[in-house]
Amino acid sequence: MSALPARRDEPASGFAAEAVRAQFPILATRMRGRPLVYLDSAASAQKPRAVIDALARFYEHDYANIHRGVYELSQRASALHEEARREVARFLGSRDPREIVFVRNATEGVNLVAYAFLEPRLEPGDEILVTEMEHHANIVPWQLVAGRRGARVVPVPITDEGELRVEDVAERIGPRTRMLAVTWVSNVLGTITPVHAIAELARRRGVPLLVDAAQAAPHLPIDVRSLGADFLVFSGHKTYGPSGVGVLWGRAELLEAMPPWQGGGDMIERVSFAGTTFNTIPFRFEAGTPDIAGIHALGVALRWLRGLGLEAVRAHEEALVGYALERLPRVPGLRVLGSPRARAAVVAFTIDGLHPQDVGTLLDLDGIAIRTGHHCAMPLHERLGLPASARASMGVYTTLGEIDALAASLERIVARFR
Ligand code: PMP
Fold first, then answer.
1. How far is the CA of 135 from the centre of ligand 1 (A)?
2. 389 to each of 191, 337, 402, how far by Cα in Å?
3. 376 part of the active site
4. Closest CA to 182 of 155, 204, 219
5. Backbone angles phi, psi at 282, to 5 degrees
6. Of 212, 211, 210, 163, which is closest to residue 189 (Cα–Cα)?
7. Which strand (E) or helix (H) includes residue 127?
8. Is 343 within 8 Å of 387 (Cβ atoms)?
9. Which among 89, 185, 239, 377 counts the fewest CB atoms within 10 Å?
10. Bridge partner list, 37
């Protein structure tokens, strides 16, 4: 048994976790006869009542296709759609809602930049720099366009602690580097990378920078103006919004200069068989009917998250991850992956003598949901010399008691099966 007392109901760092938690209906679910302990927020976050209600309300009262109808309902839906765009701009600190392109998810945002921005500029022998700890979403799209152009994707190594050093990035920027694509937060190690310093470096060396903020957006305040990157992507479903909607932010002058990447309705100015002209940004990149209700609900989710205060969210999650890093290593044979100085609310681990898959399955019997596998970061696992790991990831609703529940369950598993 742990020497630390069970603290299931105690909020971390004065943040009203239980009050926040009460807003998430799914967290009242029982799993296998026990309270659900949801520790897979890095894969997808659960949704607060405000978001669930916004979706239902939109379909009940405001739904019609956007940007097309002259009738009032369509105009109302269109106004709400553009309000969501302004809300995303506020969330990211952009002054210009034209810089916000709605996509399906972070993955689609990276693909859009790879095909519409980078591919036309790529020559054989060119290089795209990523890091060893990228999610596949920030590797494979670059490999696809590199393959079409005879270019290559080059990984920047990380340290044994799981950190990304600016000097290692600087060292690998060469005359053929055409793009730098870096995650802000690792979805496995939780490492918070020095994106501000990397952006400054990229600017100095004249290399366009895409920041993958899929794991940053739910946890850290973002201000694209002070960040100084060129593109940034994130997914709605990890930021307490619906699945199926995501965001690409790009500097207006770069978006303006980019050709369209998918053709269809809404992205055109005028179509004829003699030739077609295209709409202004961001609509040029938004072909076809989007997830209209989902985008509205994403705006609601981001407003809700801003309402909690991202500084307060960060403090809450720092307390959680600090506690997890103190408590989990007391489980016999448990090894936490990485020891970065700055870590978001993600802790990946292995347990000697137990396969992560089995650990996940056994935890599930206690109603505890964690992620096991390579977490879409196979090159990182290769770097770590591991085929797979287990990962507990936290969110605004996570309590210290849930970390205790995880640790206690792991201790029972170790005692019984190892
Ligand atoms: N980047 C990172 C760091 C991620 O963690 C994820 C999701 N696990 C993605 C990109 C891709 O997100 P999505 O599947 O929502 O496109």
1. 7
2. 16, 9, 20
3. yes
4. 155
5. -90, -5
6. 163
7. strand 127-131
8. no
9. 89
10. 368
Atom 14 of ligand 1: nearest residue by CA position: 107
Q: Quick one: which atom of ligand 1 is closest to the CA of 376?
A: 8
Q: 15-68: per-residue pLDDT in tens?
A: 677 889 999 999 999 998 999 999 999 999 999 999 999 999 999 999 999 987
**Which token pair is 130?**
């990523």
Separation between Cα atoms, residue 106 and residue 232, nearest integer Å = 9
Return the CATH number of the domain spanning residue range 17-48+309-417. Answer: 3.90.1150.10
Q: What is the whole-number distance in angstroms between the Cα of residue 112 and the centre of ligand 1? A: 15
Task: Compute the distance between CA of residue 394 and CA of residue 40 in angstroms, rounded to an integer.
Answer: 7
User: What distance lies between CA 234 and its chain's CA centroid?
Assistant: 5
Q: Which two tokens stand for residue 340?
A: 């970065």
Q: 296 exposed, middle or buried (CB, 10 Å; 0-12, 13-18, 19+)?
A: buried
Q: Which of 210, 376, 380, 410 is catalytic?
A: 376
Domain definitions of the chain by residue range: 17-48+309-417, 52-307
Domain 52-307 fold is: Aspartate Aminotransferase; domain 2 (3.40.640)
State yes or no: pLDDT of 306 exceeds 80: yes
d(CA 159, CA 148): 31
Four-point Cα dihedral 137, 293, 22, 13, nearest 10: 50
SS3 173: coil
